[in-house]
């Protein structure tokens, strides 16, 4: 189902952005609140590089479509990466356990 939103060639960005996010957290150079924004920008740049390979410019519409696809694919990949991280945190934390086990 995720392939209907994210280009199958760009699905590799999800784990790549996840690993970059872990690296940014360990470096402690960035505030964690800005991490989704940083991953979004990196995702857009990486998807633009990937999509540039197949770029065939015949008119201005092709350029606008390329920019739009780069933005959307980068944001979706970053969103999937952040979502995966949040699910992982909740599965390890008490949030999920408290749903099934009452004190």
Explain what this protein looks like in three dimensions.
The chain is mainly α and 103 residues long. It has one domain. Helix content is 71%, strand content 0%. The chain has helices spanning 13-27, 35-52, 60-92, 94-100. The longest helix has 33 residues, at 60-92. The N and C termini lie far apart (37 Å). The mean pLDDT is 87.
Q: What count of structural domains?
A: 1
Q: Average pLDDT across residues?
A: 87
Structural class: mainly alpha
Give the percentage of residues in beta strands: under 5%
Overall shape: elongated
Poorly predicted segments: none
> Major β-sheet, in short?
none
Radius of gyration: 17 Å
Count of DSSP H/I helices = 4
Number of strands: 0
- Cα-to-Cα separation, first versus last residue: 37 Å
Element order: H for helix, E for strand: HHHH
Helix residue percentage: over 70%
Condensed summary:
This protein has helices spanning 13-27, 35-52, 60-92, 94-100. By secondary structure, the protein is an all-alpha fold.
List the keywords:
103 residues, mainly alpha, 71% helix
SSE blueprint:
Elements: H1 13-27, H2 35-52, H3 60-92, H4 94-100
Helix pairs in contact: 1-2, 1-3, 2-3
């Amino acid at each position: 189902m995720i392939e209907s939103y994210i280009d199958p060639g760009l699905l590799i960005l999800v784990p790549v952005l996840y690993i970059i996010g872990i690296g940014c957290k360990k470096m402690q150079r960035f505030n964690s609140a800005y991490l989704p924004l940083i991953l979004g920008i990196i995702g857009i740049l990486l998807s633009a590089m990937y999509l540039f390979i197949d770029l065939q410019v015949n008119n201005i519409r092709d350029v606008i479509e390329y920019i739009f696809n780069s933005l959307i694919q980068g944001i979706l990949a970053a969103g999937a990466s952040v979502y995966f991280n949040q699910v992982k945190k909740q599965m390890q934390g008490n949030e999920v356990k408290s749903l099934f086990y009452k004190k």
